[in-house]
Amino acid sequence: MLERNEWHRSSACLTHYESMTDNTNTKRSRRTSGAITLRDVAKLAGVAPISASRALNTPHHVSPEVLQKVLDAVERTGYVPNRMAGGLASSRSRLIAAVVPSTVMSVFMETVETLNGALFDAGYQLMLGQSGYSLDREEALLEAVIGRRPDGIFLTGILQPGRGRSRLLASGIPVVESWDLTPTPIDMLVGFSHADIGREVANFLIGKGRRKFAMVRASDERADRRAVAFAEIVAKRGLGQVLEINVGSSRTLRSGREAMQRVLAETPDVDAIVCSSDLLALGVLTEAKARSISVPSRLSIMGFGDVPFLADMVPALSTVRINGADIGNQAARFLIDRAEGRAVTTRIVDVGFSIVERDTT
Predict the structure, then answer these.
(1) pLDDT at 191 over 50
(2) Predicted structure pTM score
(3) Could you name the CATH architecture of 194-321?
(4) By the 8 A CB rule, do 205 and 274 touch?
(5) Helix, strand, coil: what percent of the chain each, to 5?
(6) Which CATH fold topology does 92-192+323-352 show?
(7) C-alpha closest to that of 20 among 154, 149, 187, 159
(8) Comparing 92-192+323-352 with 194-321, is the CATH topology the same?
């Protein structure tokens, strides 16, 4: 570990870095917003820059003591080595990286396609990575992306405090988070409120005369907030508790059918089921049809995402519509402006949502 006085010698540098990265009102330029360099790491570790470089690139060429000092400094600052050999800090890669949970039957596809089109028209290429809803995989993707120094990074969701967030802050790369809202984004944000969705869906179904609710949902922090807000409205209206069936990481039609079986076993008089994705809702609907349960006269079903073919189904699925194209276009404008040195003054954009009523409600 580094000695106390070694940390102290570089405290001014770190204090400056932390104050800039934690201040959400700070205007960040493209590459000069407090990005941590190898020289900063070396100074914090109390070694020469060449020694720090050797520790990271050829660790067997330095002593264990030097290696540990450098690794401690890297962990402290969140520094990620620049893997673009010979790249200059002022160079532009014309590359934007995006990390999404999934592209298979995904609500994110409209956003990704719009983002890709807008970036391509402006002369940028999109590099896409899938996290599979895994925090560990997302962190690994981010580390690989940061090391290649793209001109910007697009994320689905809000990155929570931790190693990935600290490394993005340290990199100085423009970042757009999306599909969520927070007053303290890493940099820029285009999204909507999941809690508001939960409340609006609850009020919508209660207004339809529904009184016995269940929720079929995957394990996802954003789905958590929709579920909590939904249950709070139901409780405030004196309608009891909402039965929750958590299908874990599975988001398949089969898991929706199996969840529907559990709902009917535990609450046979259920008259409304809200699902955290359209695919789960289709599974619930399939199982209801297999059991000859009338939809919507006996049971209302609500999805989330509005994947393209829902309106053409029989019965057509009611759902929550997110304007993914608006998210993609605004995110592209943010990233292009920052990559080309233009200031972004309004860094948070709420695109809202809408409830799409179809046959299942």
Answers:
(1) yes
(2) 0.77
(3) 3-Layer(aba) Sandwich (3.40)
(4) yes
(5) 45, 15, 40
(6) Rossmann fold (3.40.50)
(7) 187
(8) yes
